[in-house]
Amino acid sequence: ITTSVSCTSWYTSTTSGSLIAVIPASTSGSYEIFAKLSSVAVTNSVKSSITVLNVPVSPTVTSNGSTTLCPSTSVQLTSTGIGSLIWSNGQTTPTITVNTANNYYVTESNQCGTITSNTVTVTQIFLPAVSITGQTVACGSSTLHVNGSNYTNLVWNGGQTASTITTTTTGSFYAVASNTCGSVNSNTINVTINSKPTLSVSTTNSDIPLCVGQTATLTVSGADSYNWNPGFLTGDTVVVGPTSTTIYTVVGTNTLTGCMSAVQSVTVDVNQLPTITASTITNVTCFGLNNGSIDF
Questions:
Q1: Which of 273, 249, 274 is nearest to 263 (CA)?
Q2: Who's near 182: CB < 8 A, 6+ residues apart?
Q3: How far apart (Å, rounded) are the C-alpha atoms in residues 75 and 232?
Q4: How does pLDDT run across 175-231, given as a tens digit for each residue?
Q5: How far is C-alpha 60 from the geometric centre of its chain's CA atoms?
Q6: What is the gyration radius of the CA atoms in the chain, in angstroms?
Q7: What is the sign of the dihedral through the CA atoms of 53, 57, 63 and 67?
Q8: How confident is the model at residue 278, as a pLDDT?
Q9: DSSP state, 116?
Q10: Distance separating alpha carbons of residues 148 and 154, to the nearest angstrom
Q11: H helix runs in 23-105, sequence order
Q12: What is the C-alpha separation between 209 and 14, in angstroms, rounded?
């Protein structure tokens, strides 16, 4: 504030006011002040008004609850600032309600400057999303797997807690997945388990082990069709004549279900013919004589 007269002092009233010095750092507020010459009575003063503003103080942002949100939930954020406020999402009220994940802060400003508050991070947790995949028709057993995300706990309707299970029984299967926001059920999968054939293999030849040139008859039961190896033989009865000891394997198939048995085997032992080697041969001296010999 200036006047056209020199040697001016400032007072808070025209009669008994005290001399003041307006220092913005410590004298915020609005003032009606008067000026006079040092040699002139206060009644001859000049009246003026002045408003003093503080430099903004960093505001603090707080929440009224958890800043980790579940679906359809929200949290209130409040700023302690008293100046002109603007939030990072564009809102301008001291308190805002938010329901989306983000970093939130306030900027406070006046003619003396601008300052930013602390940042509050709001996160969101979504409900689990899960589904089950696996063989719905299987031979012997089926492996089922949970595909999904956002879950911290998982329980199958059979009590298992692993994401992958193996079942050997027919039935309906589903899983319940949960996190801090709640739980959801997966789809239900209906599984049919067909039994694998159980084979019984035998030989009808009582002369095993065989000699070279002999045959053995192998029989199998427990399935509808059969495949033998070696030899790519088929049928429930096969005749084999190996020239050396051989292991024969067979697999049976159930025609209705397509299920195959475990591999069964039978060993056919073969004895080799003896080998004779002459060590010394003495020929006869003349035809008709018997003076020759063979030593072994």
A1: 249
A2: 70, 127
A3: 74
A4: 999 999 999 999 999 999 999 999 999 987 666 788 888 899 999 999 999 999 999
A5: 37
A6: 51
A7: positive
A8: 58
A9: E
A10: 11
A11: none
A12: 138
Q: Specify the pTM.
A: 0.65
Say which residues have a Cβ less than 8 Å from residue 40's Cβ, sequence separation at least 6: none
CA pair distance 230, 236, nearest whole angstrom: 15
Q: Closest Cα to residue 208, out of 270, 133, 163, 164?
A: 270
Compute how many other C-beta atoms are within 10 angstroms of the C-beta atom of residue 203.
16
Residues 6+ apart with CB under 8 A from 163: 145, 146, 154
Report which residue type is found at 254.
Answer: N
Q: Using one digit for the tens of pLDDT, what is the confidence trace for 89-140? A: 999 999 999 999 999 999 998 777 889 999 999 999 999 999 999 999 999 9
**Contacts of range 21-24, beta carbons closer than 8 Å, 24 or more positions apart:** 22/50, 22/52, 24/52, 24/53, 24/54, 24/55, 24/112
Which phi and psi (to 5°) does residue 162 adopt?
A: -80, 155
- Cα separation, 13 vs 175, in Å, equals 82
For residues 232-259, average pLDDT: 95
**Ordered DSSP codes for 52-65:** E-PPPPPP-EEESS
Q: Nearest 5 degrees, angle CA 43-CA 45-CA 46?
A: 145
Q: At 80, give phi and psi (nearest 5°).
A: -85, -5
